[in-house]
Amino acid sequence: MIKNYIKSAFKNIKKRKGYSFINIIGLGVGIASCILIFLWVHHQLSYDQFHVNRDSLHSVNFSNGSEATPPAMADYLKKRYGDILNASRFNYANRTRVKCNEKEMMESGGAFVDPSFSDMFTLKFYKGNAKTALLKPESIVLTKSLAIKYFGNKDALGETLIIYGKDLKVTGLIEDYPTNSYIQFKFLMPFELLRQMGANLKIWTNNWHQTYVQLHPKTDLKTINKKISGLV
User: Fold this and answer.
1) What SS3 class is residue 11?
2) Which end of the chain is flanked by fewer CB atoms within 10 Å, N or C?
């Protein structure tokens, strides 16, 4: 029975070549479009789902939706509110000059974070200690692709990069960050390095970076939002 249907279908295709060609092309384009749309939607819905602590991670925003917050906020929130397990500031670095031995290049994709950042967000360290990598101000954590770019097949751990005129020791190496992440970076530097560069990190009147918090399990988001409302 099926064999007869197939034969009949091929006869109709030969008989009406132009009509069949249009139908087959249309069907192919339709199927391809559906697959592409599905893949795009799947990718969008997968954003930040790889974080182990994803359900307890939140960005601190103002009521107008602004993500820019004062540098004194993160430490204050962690000390003042027991519902907050961890807090970290995050600020993208401007495109900057990086020196390494004979190499000197302009790099983008750097970010300043607090040491707690590696406890909150999932970073896949393959060299170095995640707990201590960002404790000292003059340290830096590189993604795998950037480490290869500057050091090739050589072990980059313990090597030095000169950024902002300071010798930054490579204290950690991580796998490249997934593309389905809201946060993107190539290298991480301690937020305290900004203090050495003259930034006032205790100020409340200047909003210029993002603040992320990790809540204790089962903490009610509405309750903590109500507690911190009107803080600034």
Assistant:
1) helix
2) N
CA 35 to CA 33: how far, in whole Å?
A: 5
115-158 per-position pLDDT tens digit: 999 999 999 999 999 999 999 999 999 999 999 999 999 999 99
Is 47 in contact with 182 (CB distance < 8 Å)? Answer: yes
Closest CA to 90 of 119, 124, 67: 67
Banded model confidence at residue 24, pLDDT cuts 50, 70, 90? confident
Residues paired with 174 in a beta bridge: 125, 143
45's CB contacts (< 8 A; 6+ apart) are none
Residue 80 CB-density burial (10 A; 0-12 exposed, 13-18 middle, 19+ buried)? exposed
Q: What CA–CA distance (Å, rounded) separates 9 from 198?
A: 77
Helices (H), the chain: 2-15, 17-45, 73-80, 117-120, 144-151, 192-196, 221-228
Q: How long, in residues, is the chain?
A: 232
Q: What are phi and psi of 12, to 5 degrees?
A: -65, -35
Q: Is 118 left (phi over 0), alpha (psi -120 to 50) or beta?
A: alpha
d(CA 82, CA 214): 11
* Band of residue 103 on the pLDDT scale cut at 50, 70, 90: confident
Q: Tokens 């896949």 — which residue?
A: 124
Q: pLDDT, tens digit, for every residue of 41-85?
A: 877 888 899 999 999 999 999 989 899 999 999 999 999 999 999
